Amino acid sequence: MLSLSGEDPLTRVGRVDFGGIVKEVNLAFAPEAAVGAWVLVHVGFAIAVIDEAEAVRVFVHLREIGDLAEEAAAP
Amino acid sequence: MTDSDAFALSCPVPAGDGEIVQLAHGGGGRAMARLIDRIIRPAFADRELERRHDGAALDIAGPVAFTTDSYVVQPLIFPGGDIGSLAVNGTVNDLAMCGARPLYLSVGFILEEGLPIDLLRRVVGSMRAAATVAGVRLVTGDTKVVDRGKADGMFVSTAGIGRIVTATPVEPASVVPGDVVILSGDIGRHGIAVMAAREGFGFETSIESDCAPLADSVLALIEAGIMPHCLRDLTRGGLASAAVEIAETAGCAIALDEASILVCEEVTAACELLGLDPLHVANEGRFVAFVAPEDAEPAVAILRRHPVTAAAAIVGEVRSGPQGQVSCRGPFGVARAIDMLSGEQLPRIC
Amino acid sequence: MKYRDEYRDPEAARRLADAIARTVTRPWTLMEVCGGQTHAIVRFGLDELLPKTVSLVHGPGCPVCVTPIEYVDKAIEIALSPGVIFCSFGDMLRVPGTSGDLLSAKSRGADIRIVYSPLDALAVGRAEPLREVVFFAVGFETTAPANAMAAYRAKRDGVGNFSMLVSHVLVPPAMRSILEAPDNRIQGFLAAGHVCTVMGYQEYEPIARKHRVPIVVTGFEPVDILEGVYLCVRQLETGGAEVENQYSRSVRRDGNRPAQQLMREVFRVIPRRWRGIGDIAESGLGLGEAYREFDAESRFGPVRAGSAEAGECISGLVLRGERKPLECPAFGVRCTPEHPLGVTMVSSEGACAAYYRYRGAGAGAGAGG
To answer: For the segment B278-305, what is each residue's pLDDT rounded down to a tens digit?
Structure first.
């Protein structure tokens, strides 16, 4: 999220950076979104703010799986 | 306006006078003569044009490459170029793809009544600039004007003549299994730049079209003694279409490696947003070269010395079969089939 | 790009595929119900990374595919009406109706415009007050909030020339319908992550309990899908039948409250016919009473019940997961994206289209390859 504008919660928009491409996104369904947040966008609307802590969990889980693999493979 | 400053000395008409193209400008009479004399001929400042004759008289010895193309891009002006630079570079590149040194161009304009003269002036200026960079002369042309609503602003056609400098024919039929596929740079810029400039897509980007002349890079290869079996510039339909056409014509298979195909961050982002595959997005300053395996590394080294092809890389190889099939190995080692687009590429919904 | 590239990491994918292979002791059949997941699976070849004992079936995850043919016919009829501007997502343009599609209607003179967002269609309505502007509101729960917003704003701002042709579908009733079929083979589900971002996953808990199937809410990047499969298989091996949330970076159990609120305000749950599956009770959304005036069916007449589709197309079987696209004799031979026999080949989310695009025409049963 690069910037926000608008007072009316229905029409509040943010300029969102998609890896270099910037597009305006409606924030009516993501009232808690702030500058710097990562959002999931669908047909021009932000439908979720990405939970960064949860995002890391996938990789923690992966490491565990990897450790299990090493245990299983060890003679 | 800097474009008109460039040839202000030979074109005494002030900029921004609000003039538009009228039907009379295409009528073959005084109005048309004035348009050509004031705007078109001075921009190209060529002695053949000064002869004011029906055609150019040229002296060319040896095998000649001849090509033609029409340009109907919308919008007429986009980041990184306009219909004029496109028209010149497009034809220059087609000649280069034949293994020829581009020499002369003709241009045909179909102008829509109501087109601002300033826009015409700008397009013509772009063509002149592009021709200078590419080292070609614009020696003959034609202008027509059609009613409002019949030409989307303007349509441009160019034809080009070049001298073939390769000993063997550069064409799909010369491609054989074992050949290496080299891509001259990153893909997708032109298509995304044009889409961004069109209304309705609504995104900001700094991407510019990759529209550029490729002849110098190609000639450098040939002068170094490398004989490409085939060259193809990537235009509409992108890398995928070029590969499929060549595979089908040559009766062989092409295996590409996705990790080697460069796509810049912004083009990737735009493609994700719009549901497009970069392999299908248009380019205007990129080509693929099919060379013998022993020529591959040297060819890449030579191309990398030129700015337009600085990111050249090996992206695949030619195999004997299945005939006409193009595949691309993805990041997980699985190969997927690549085909040409069927009709328009549509943005995706979920 | 962050939150995308790391979920496409080949090393992570390989590790998950290995973990799945180590965990599996018997054959399992899982279904995913998300066009985006179908797409990713075929594009990245995830099904080839899985052990042969794990069978991943593509369910009715493509809203374009399940839109009844009579709605496509109605859309074409409306689009060809004088003075109408018809707006639609790009995917619907080449869905075959009874005779022709929206794209052919366009070449016959219909003013059809592709939009990226429903609000773009509303903007067209504002910009062209003398024309009737109709938007084809198709999709699962993921798109419903956006469509609801378009209707809500139209009403609030009095955009009287705007209306919507609504054919929304809901996922849980479709899952129940599949599980209740007498010959059902599906033992576990990957639930669509984006649908659940909006709706949460509470409504899947009764389904998991009643039918004793594990349901894993899964994202649609390769690592997400593989982790989803892993979690699902792990439950199956240990006899679990719970709802698990793999896509926890976007999905919360309650989902997106403001979005659901607006959906409740604008829509009501109605029965829907699913193309290739049939009628499923309470499986769709239609405009509520307060929004009747923005319903295209109020302005242009109700959608008429359509005839059964004849012909070779087995898209119904594909959507229910009973056949795979490559098993269809017409695949790649008589049915291609240029000449589709059914919706699953037209829509980029459709299973047949995904296979054609990434495996090639020659991969089918009828091609003799």
So the answer is: 999 999 999 999 999 999 999 999 999 9
Question: Can you tell me the mean pLDDT for C308-331?
Answer: 80
What average pLDDT does this structure show over C85-98? Answer: 86
Instruction: Please report which confidence band the pLDDT of residue C348 belongs to, taking 50, 70 and 90 as the band edges.
Output: low
- The answer to whether the beta carbons of residues C340 and C331 sit under 8 Å apart is no
Cβ of residue C113 closer than 8 Å to a chain A Cβ: no
At C307-317, the pLDDT tens digits run 666 567 888 78
CB B156 within 8 A of CB B138: no
Alpha carbon of C99: minimum distance to chain A alpha carbons (Å): 29
- Euclidean distance between the first and the last CA atom of chain C, given in angstroms as a whole number: 39
For residues A10 and C153, the answer to whether their CB atoms sit within 8 Å is yes
Note whether A50 contacts C250, CB cutoff 8 Å.
yes
Distance from CA of B348 to the nearest CA of A (A): 10
ipTM of the prediction: 0.85
Residue pointed to by tokens 């921009």: B43
Cβ-based neighbours of B292, under 8 Å, separated by 6 or more: B178, B179, B180, B227, B229
Kindly give the pairing relationship between strand C215-218 and strand C188-192.
parallel
Q: How confident is the model at residue B36 (pLDDT cuts 50, 70, 90)?
A: confident
The pLDDT, as a whole number, for residue C353 is 83
pTM of the model: 0.82
Question: What is the average pLDDT value for chain B, to the nearest integer?
Answer: 87
Q: What is the mean pLDDT of chain C?
A: 89
Please choose, from the candidates C269, C233, C245, C338, the residue with its C-alpha nearest in 3D space to the C-alpha of residue B339.
Answer: C338
Interchain pair C3, A38: CB under 8 A: yes
In the block, which residue shows the tokens 């049915």? C335
Residue C246 confidence (pLDDT):
94
Least confident of B57-66, B317-326, C86-95: C86-95
Alpha-carbon distance of B59 to C123, in angstroms, equals: 59
The kind and range of the H/E element at B316 are strand B313-319
Q: Determine the Cα–Cα distance for residues C222 and C42; give it in Å rounded to an integer.
A: 10
Residues of B in contact with A22 (CB under 8 A): 203-205
pLDDT for A69 equals: 67
Stated as kind and residue range, the H or E segment containing B155 is strand B154-164
- Give me the residue label for tokens 């239609």: C286
For residues C172 and C32, give the distance between their C-alpha atoms in angstroms, rounded to a whole number: 12
Share of chain B above pLDDT 90, in %: 59
In this complex, do A57 and C248 lie within 8 Å of one another by their Cβ atoms?
A: yes
Round to whole Å and give the CA distance between B237 and B283: 8
pLDDT (mean) for B6-15: 36
Residue of chain B nearest A41, judged by CA positions: B273
Using alpha carbons, select from B86, B253, B100, B260 the residue that is nearest to residue B171. B100
Long-range contact pairs involving A3-12 (C-beta distance under 8 Å, separation at least 24)? A3/A35, A4/A33, A4/A34, A4/A35, A10/C149, A10/C152, A10/C153, A10/C156
Instruction: Give CA–CA dist A29/B297, Å, rounded.
Output: 53
Residue C35 in 3-state DSSP?
helix
Residue with tokens 């299973």: C351
pLDDT band at residue B15 under the 50/70/90 scheme:
very low
The nearest CA of chain B is from the CA of A13 a distance in Å of 14
Q: Which residues pair with B142 in a beta bridge?
A: B108
And the tokens for C330?
């017409």
Q: How far apart are CA B207 and CA A19, in angstroms?
A: 12
- Residue B346 confidence class, pLDDT cut points 50, 70, 90: very low
DSSP C276-331: TTEEEEEEEEEE-GGGGGGBHHHHH-PPPPPPPP-SS--HHHHHTTSS-GGG-TTB
Q: Which two tokens stand for residue B160?
A: 């080009």
